[in-house]
Amino acid sequence: MSDLLLPPEHRYAKMIEQRQNEDGSELSILNLGPTHPATHGIFQNILLMDGERILDGEGTVGYIHRAFEKIAENRPFYQITPLTDRMNYCSAPINNMGWWMTLEKALDIEVPKRVQYMRVIIMELARIADHIICNSVLGVDTGALTGFLYVFQYREKIYEIYEEICGARLTTNMGRIGGFERDWSPAAFRKINEFLDEFPKIWGEFESLLTRNRIFMDRTIDVGPISAEKAMSYGFTGPNLRAAGIDYDIRVMKPYSSYEDFEFDVPVGKSGDTYDRFCVRNAEVWESLKIIRQAVDKMPEGPFHANVPDYYLPPKEEVYNNMEALIYHFKIVMGEVPVPKTEVYHAVEGGNGELGFYLITDGSRTPYRLHFRRPCFIYYQAFNDMVRGQMLSDAIATLSSLNVIAGELDA
Amino acid sequence: MALKTSVIQEKLESKFGDKVTGFTQVKDIFSFEVAPEANNEVMRFLKEDPALRFNFLTDVCGVHYPDEQPERQFAVVYHMHNWFDNIRIRFKCFLNGENPEIDTVTGLFLGANWQERETYDFYGIIFKGHPQLKRILNMDEMVSFPLRKEFPMEDGGRTDKDDRFFGRVTDNATQINQE
């Protein structure tokens, strides 16, 4: 016992002792994480193991907690967007757009159709990037490195599109209240079209590499399952919930940013296991491609931002050459703008599920309270329930298929 | 939208009387206040009533209102969602500033577990009956509750941001450090 460095009052210590008395077998404690390469992020799981089998687990999170909610209470709105980037950094534009939409709801701003379509394109690209990472890394964790290296080139292409649109790649800080910082260049549309032409073939190949692969199926079917009732009780949303068989998708339930204009299906799974989660994400990539294609084809003409000079930054040429524009630029960035006293909750369908922003304003330059509903944080608590009784290698596959992003988990 | 907010209000008022108050539509979400001792019953009613069917607990979080009267210094905010009629509601339970305590709702929704721990971690609100109420994102040794308004965002004792290191000498250097 003493070499386990476990306080004697810990419940595992009692369980180990009890088992030893029962049949003389030895249980062991395993620290999975916080910096284990297979956890893909910094979170620790203390597992009580019977050989290779997990009897119980206890998660510790918060290793990269950066107090975003506290910082947000001390920052004007434009300075909060970079914080949202750093939550789910695999699909940062969704977080950015969700934040702008929350503000627009609070400030009663109507955005032009063109902006809404542009947002849809960028959010769906981000979703594809998110799912590329999750699914290909699931392949890596089950022993297939090829697919990962192959599809990652296309994440790079998506990042090139981001770069063309806003200049940044990972933490995008994209957009403004009411629209985008500039209209998309022809090069951006060319890159999107190239991506739409090339990617389906690659994704098809990736799918055929794993979907009916005997080894992959053996490693993922019935691994880390969760029932629909339990998933709902645990607050699952997004692909993980849909894999359990519930077709809850905010894009359909409460369409924002003109999602009602597009035709797409909501793929659902059945058993909520790792394989179903993989398949649901695969199918969602196809749906996202469908949405982007429709949005590009139907892209309306018009302004790329709403006419809200109180909140939308003046153009850069003006700022550099014109006193009034410079003053306005400064005032907007520092939050000297009219803000009504209100409370809003806005949710978008993030890469992992319902990403909600609960904003309370009191009329001052900073939010009175800003709470992020982070899907990862809420569903990761089910992890120990899902892997109880499974093998250690299954826990790795389950963790990977849940797509827990440490940045979003810890905020 | 099949379920009308007036129906929700009527049902709650006839069942709980003056324990549910302040019904109002804030933007797109119907909101009200619930007396803290009734939070569990109200949530159970919202979840299990065949007409209301608020089957999903979207979010639990805390808010600190230090400028309010002592009985209303903290609020626990619950967002619930009815997936059948697709309607969201929000209710707040106001707690006193001295020792904020409220019953846990983990018996109704498993997902409330970590969200309540997070609220405890940042506001020091005690959730009675919670299976494992301890800090979650902050370290266990921490003694303060960082999202309370009186908690400064930066450590006032920091020396690395001292103006003297940047060639500036001010009389109220300490005051600047607080900012």
TrEMBL record, chain A:
Transmembrane segments: none annotated. Its main location: membrane. InterPro entries: NADH_Q_OxRdtase_suD (IPR001135), NADH_UbQ_OxRdtase_49kDa_CS (IPR014029), NDH1_su_D/H (IPR022885), NiFe-Hase_large (IPR029014). One of its GO terms (cellular component) is plasma membrane. It catalyses: a quinone + NADH + 5 H(+)(in) = a quinol + NAD(+) + 4 H(+)(out). Pfam families: Complex1_49kDa. It comes from the Bacteria. One of its GO terms (molecular function) is NAD binding. Residues 141-410 form the NADH-quinone oxidoreductase subunit D domain. Keywords: Cell membrane, Membrane, NAD, Quinone, Translocase, Transport. It is found in: Cell membrane. It is a peripheral membrane protein. Signal peptide: none annotated. Its EC number is 7.1.1.-. NDH-1 shuttles electrons from NADH, via FMN and iron-sulfur (Fe-S) centers, to quinones in the respiratory chain. The immediate electron acceptor for the enzyme in this species is believed to be ubiquinone. Couples the redox reaction to proton translocation (for every two electrons transferred, four hydrogen ions are translocated across the cytoplasmic membrane), and thus conserves the redox energy in a proton gradient. NDH-1 shuttles electrons from NADH, via FMN and iron-sulfur (Fe-S) centers, to quinones in the respiratory chain. The immediate electron acceptor for the enzyme in this species is believed to be a menaquinone. Couples the redox reaction to proton translocation (for every two electrons transferred, four hydrogen ions are translocated across the cytoplasmic membrane), and thus conserves the redox energy in a proton gradient. NCBIfam families: PRK06075.1. Belongs to the complex I 49 kDa subunit family. HAMAP family: NDH1_NuoD. NDH-1 is composed of 14 different subunits. Subunits NuoB, C, D, E, F, and G constitute the peripheral sector of the complex. This is NADH-quinone oxidoreductase subunit D. The lineage of its organism: Bacteria, Pseudomonadati, Bacteroidota, Flavobacteriia, Flavobacteriales. The gene is nuoD.
UniProtKB/TrEMBL annotation, chain B:
Keywords: Cell membrane, Membrane, NAD, Quinone, Translocase, Transport. It catalyses: a quinone + NADH + 5 H(+)(in) = a quinol + NAD(+) + 4 H(+)(out). It is found in: Cell membrane. The keyword Iron does not apply. Its EC number is 7.1.1.-. GO terms for molecular function: NADH dehydrogenase (quinone) (non-electrogenic) activity; NADH dehydrogenase (ubiquinone) activity; quinone binding. InterPro entries: NADH_DH_suC, NADH_quin_OxRdtase_su_C/D-like, NADH_UbQ_OxRdtase_30kDa_su, NADH_UbQ_OxRdtase_CS. It is a peripheral membrane protein. Residues 33-154 form the NADH:ubiquinone oxidoreductase 30kDa subunit domain. One of its GO terms (cellular component) is plasma membrane. Its main location: membrane. The keyword Ribonucleoprotein does not apply. HAMAP family: NDH1_NuoC. NDH-1 is composed of 14 different subunits. Subunits NuoB, C, D, E, F, and G constitute the peripheral sector of the complex. NCBIfam families: NuoC_fam. Belongs to the complex I 30 kDa subunit family. NDH-1 shuttles electrons from NADH, via FMN and iron-sulfur (Fe-S) centers, to quinones in the respiratory chain. The immediate electron acceptor for the enzyme in this species is believed to be a menaquinone. Couples the redox reaction to proton translocation (for every two electrons transferred, four hydrogen ions are translocated across the cytoplasmic membrane), and thus conserves the redox energy in a proton gradient. This is NADH-quinone oxidoreductase subunit C. The lineage of its organism: Bacteria, Pseudomonadati, Bacteroidota, Flavobacteriia, Flavobacteriales.
